[in-house]
Specification:
Blueprint (H helix, E strand, L loop, with lengths): L4 E5 L9 E5 L2 E8 L2 E6 L13 E3 L2 E3 L6 E3 L5 E3 L8 E7 L2 E6 L1
Antiparallel strand pairs: 1-10, 2-3, 3-4, 4-9, 5-6, 6-7, 7-8, 9-10
The structure holds FE2/S2 (inorganic) cluster.
Length: 103
């Protein structure tokens, strides 16, 4: 959609572990790295696993099920066995609210 959707309060997003939000019925993961926010689909494209349960290392999220890697900046595959990119979102902060918009 073209609309910005509020998904989280900035204070609720930790640098340690992704937060979960919802946009138009789709579950998304919200990440914070060095003070910047990023958002992708929360569901791995390889199987039914939640990336919010995975391991965030720099700009890479590792899927908890088969350890596939995605770049949280653009949703691109970054390590086997994944081969379909994640949906990714533009992110902005308005006051203390994180808002996202599908790319
Ligand atoms: Fe994520 Fe297989 S389900 S890598």
């Amino acid at each position: 959609s073209d609309e910005w959707t509020p998904v989280a309060a900035t204070g609720d997003v930790s640098e340690d572990q992704p937060s979960v939000g919802n946009v138009d019925g789709a579950e998304i993961a919200i990440y914070k790295v060095d003070g910047d926010y990023f958002a992708t689909s929360n569901i791995c494209t390889h199987g039914l696993a939640r990336l919010s349960d995975g391991y965030l290392d720099g700009f890479l999220i590792e899927c908890p099920l088969h350890q596939g890697l995605f770049d949280i900046r653009n949703g691109k595959c970054a390590g086997d066995p994944v081969d379909v990119d994640l949906a990714s979102y533009d992110v902005r902060v308005v006051n203390d609210t994180v808002e996202v918009r599908l790319r």
